[in-house]
Amino acid sequence: MILGGVDAARFQAPLLYVPVVKRKYWEVELRGMTVGGGNAGRRPKQGASDSPLDLQAQTAIIDTGTTLILMNEGDADTVNAAVGASRDGSSGKLYSITCDTSSLPAVTLHLGDYAFSLPPEAYVVPGRDGSCSTGFSVSSMPTQWIVGNTFLRYYYSVYDASSHRVGFGKSI
């Protein structure tokens, strides 16, 4: 962790800055999620030919203290179905998925004006018993996602308090 600076050796340039929309948290605009070649977001980028899945969330809180990407139950069901996962009956909040990442699609989060892609290795979480779950889970927040380390392991993040923005660069 660097306080008051940026370690350029930790990411591939450029840093892409997304404005903070609510200053209480590091909360940015969530425009949706693309799964594989299909759009799983509320508002697809212009020119997208796929019909968007209906997501309720409008913002995402970027949180280094959260492990998964947390979302309301409807969004979690939608996103997990799009990657081929099914709800884990034992917890009710986790979703089971194959551990074979070669058969799974990449996902792309659309934050502000930018798209940030995650390979299946980023969102498939191995369990102790040899099973796997996704990094997309249920929270009680109706219109915000909490984007944690499932995403932040793959993207170096910079929290610019003076300019009210969060920067992301592909981690190396």
Automatic annotation (TrEMBL):
Entry's EC annotation: 3.4.23.25
Pfam families given in the database record: Asp (PF00026)
EC category: hydrolase
Disulfide bond annotation, renumbered to this chain: C99-C132
Keywords: Aspartyl protease, Disulfide bond, Hydrolase, Protease
Example GO molecular function: aspartic-type endopeptidase activity
Alphabetical list of PROSITE patterns matching this protein: ASP_PROTEASE, PEPTIDASE_A1
Record-level GO BP terms: proteolysis
Listed Gene3D superfamilies: Acid Proteases
The Peptidase A1 domain, residue ranges: 1-169
PANTHER family: BETA-SITE APP-CLEAVING ENZYME, ISOFORM A-RELATED (PTHR47966)
Record family assignment: Belongs to the peptidase A1 family.
Protein name (database record): Aspartic proteinase
Natural source organism: Tieghemiomyces parasiticus
Upper taxonomic lineage: Eukaryota, Fungi, Fungi incertae sedis, Zoopagomycota, Kickxellomycotina
Gene from which this protein is expressed: APR1_4
